[in-house]
Amino acid sequence: MDGSHTVRIPEGVIERLPVYLGVLLQLRQEGYTTVSSARLGELTNVNPAQIRRDLTHFGQFGKRGVGYDTFTLIDRIQSILGSNLVNRIVLVGAGHLGSAIAAYEGLRVRGFRVVAVLDKDPTKIGTRAGDLVVRDIEDLERIVREQQTHIGVIAVPTDAAQEVADRMAAAGIRVILNYSSAMVRVPDGAMVHNTDPVRELLHTLYYLSRAEKIAAAGVE
Amino acid sequence: MDGSHTVRIPEGVIERLPVYLGVLLQLRQEGYTTVSSARLGELTNVNPAQIRRDLTHFGQFGKRGVGYDTFTLIDRIQSILGSNLVNRIVLVGAGHLGSAIAAYEGLRVRGFRVVAVLDKDPTKIGTRAGDLVVRDIEDLERIVREQQTHIGVIAVPTDAAQEVADRMAAAGIRVILNYSSAMVRVPDGAMVHNTDPVRELLHTLYYLSRAEKIAAAGVE
DNA sequence: TAGATTGTTAATCGATTAACAATC
DNA sequence: TAGATTGTTAATCGATTAACAATC
Q1: This prediction's pTM
Q2: How open is the CA angle A31-B196-B160, to the nearest 5 degrees?
Q3: Is residue A91 located within the same domain as residue A194?
Q4: CATH at residue A158
Q5: Which residue from A153, B27, B58, B180 has the least number of CB within 10 angstroms?
Q6: Which A residues in the span 29-68 are in contact with B, Cβ-Cβ below 8 Å?
Q7: For residue B220, what pLDDT is reported?
Q8: Which residues face A117 on adjacent strands?
Q9: Element (H, E) at B48
């Protein structure tokens, strides 16, 4: 008994919502006030029937014969995901990738704010990353507490990733996005999303034909 | 008739292979010569039965009562994916993220090599990114031809992403990894993988409880 | 041999999609 | 009204998993 009557929403649905949202923001910027599931399907490569079904998990947002109101749908998806609020992020790792994330405008635009960048390297502490000054990893627990932060991003080398994740989880971080190539694990109650960029490349690589791969490899 | 007898492999299987590979490389480094599907399952959060089933799509690699030979399995998965060869990458976008990718050691370690970093900004052209000198985007077609490159990585702002993708596809790039928040589309024959980091964050965000999100948002 | 673990079947489970009545 | 498009059902499809015989 958790007091909620909400049915469990399939993982796939949750993964597609941000995709719809991205396209909707684009459409709104281009001045569209209405969009059909057919059009949304073209832009996202998702079957229109599936889009309609996905949305009905959360209510009825469309108008038959017309489609969906762009503004309303954006608003609804943002509330479902929780990105209508400003979500604070603690970022650990001030290397190339960490600095890129700290400086990334796209985060702010879509409702996130990096409130601290931490590193353990004394030569990095005190330097700038985006608008922030890099702080000591030792401050992690205090920052999480004081800033009420529940989201952590890991941008440290593979070897250090698990240790950082453990520390984040212990400090009260509930959602971790891990960019290192380590498959990081966290205790129940926290969630980790491992998104190693190289893993994505390896995956797409499969779809290159064998002939192309050999040609591309050439003589090293 | 394409002359191949290979059955179509489910997308999910292909997505998991790089995950297995990552963990296997780790295990090898730690000195393990053998691994069971049970152990692999723990480390990857995948059901052991599924791991065994996934692998049998490509042959029989294990020994009953013993498990899988770490070296052999790494070798087999690398051949399946094509990462036993060196795969050349053309990277477009020499901003923070592009520079981070160009300098990233993890790519080289797992069989990729960035052969060129391109940008259209004259103030960036000629500067360094990793070991390379940033070149003019106008050189794209020539580089792809001369270096036989089939993989492109997009690290440009959202507005420019589709244009870069079109140009890559026209130049003969077959696999594109897009880090911008645009949902980029390519003609048949090419493949694009849109991996917007903010989309991943939005997705994980859903799993924060409403109460936590409101607490975390605080007063802005 | 006894114990362990694979390869594989068969059952389950869940997600996707086509189709269409409802309705704007 | 005629045309369009949603919301929803029911069928299909495919992926996951439990179970176990084969076998190291």
Answers
A1: 0.91
A2: 55
A3: yes
A4: 3.40.50.720
A5: B58
A6: 43-45
A7: 41
A8: A91
A9: helix B48-56
